[in-house]
Design goal:
By secondary structure, this protein is an alpha/beta fold. Strands 3-2-1-4-5-6-7 form a 7-stranded parallel beta sheet, sandwiched between helices. Helix content is 44%, strand content 16%. It has one domain: NAD(P)-binding Rossmann-like Domain (Rossmann fold). The mean pLDDT is 93.
Length: 232
């Protein structure tokens, strides 16, 4: 029986690498797309095992319906890989309630809204893997003074993982956090043209790490946090 994975943010730079990796591993994938965002036909039609869903993943009721639909259609959800997020530069002095709430929505609520119904479904079925994408500043905020709202919002994903593991361990549900440094994407290259791109983390390396966490071998891990910093 095919394993099934939910991948949010499937058409993003990291999302595409993760989708390709899990298709190569033989998964059936339900990937979310940002509503009304343009997505090329090559991505849409790359595999019959890829189902695409336009979804605002920060909308709690819509996210719950989406997860329920996936569970009913595929029978089970083996992995949920929650990639949606956003970044903003700034300083503590510039932070406002409105700007921080935007980062919370993109980086925390986007994961929480999917993780809650997925977690309930995985407990009922007796196991599953949830992978969250944290960030280096989310582990240690002294590495994120250039983007405090980003670091603070990402830090909550580590606490969410702890909560999920505290309750899910007895049911075989494992929550993991990948914490990359700078990801090598076209947008990051454009914003930091003088950087040494070889020091950054490739999306494919993150996809490989996520695949390991969702593998049988990765099932021996408990409460894992993987720091993918490369040389950055």
């Amino acid at each position: 029986m095919k394993k099934t994975a939910i991948i949010t943010g499937g058409a993003g730079n990291l999302g595409r690498a993760v989708v390709k990796k899990f298709l190569d591993l033989g998964y059936q994938i339900a990937a979310t797309l940002e509503p009304n965002a343009p997505v090329d036909e090559a991505f849409r039609k790359q595999s019959a095992a890829l189902d695409l869903h336009e979804l605002d993943v920060t909308n709690e009721s819509d996210a719950e319906r989406f997860v329920k639909t996936c569970a009913e259609k595929y029978g089970r959800i083996d992995a949920a890989i929650l990639l949606v997020g956003g970044f903003a530069l700034g300083t503590l002095a510039e932070m406002t309630q409105k700007s921080f709430e935007k980062m919370l929505r993109l980086n925390f609520y986007s994961a929480l809204a999917i993780a809650k119904p997925v977690f309930a479904a995985m407990k009922r079925q007796g196991g599953g893997r949830i992978v969250l994408i944290g960030a280096r500043p989310g582990i240690d905020l002294k590495n994120g003074t250039f983007a405090p709202e980003y670091g603070l919002s990402k830090s909550l994903l580590f606490r969410l993982s702890e909560l999920l593991n505290a309750e899910g361990n007895a049911s075989g549900v494992i929550a993991s956090v990948i914490a990359p440094s700078v990801i090598d994407t076209p947008a990051n290259r454009a914003s930091m043209p003088d950087a040494n791109f070889d020091d950054w983390v490739k999306p494919e390396a993150i996809a490989d790490a996520i695949a390991f966490l969702c593998s049988d071998a990765g099932g021996a891990l408990r409460e894992p946090v993987l720091k993918l910093y490369n040389k950055a």
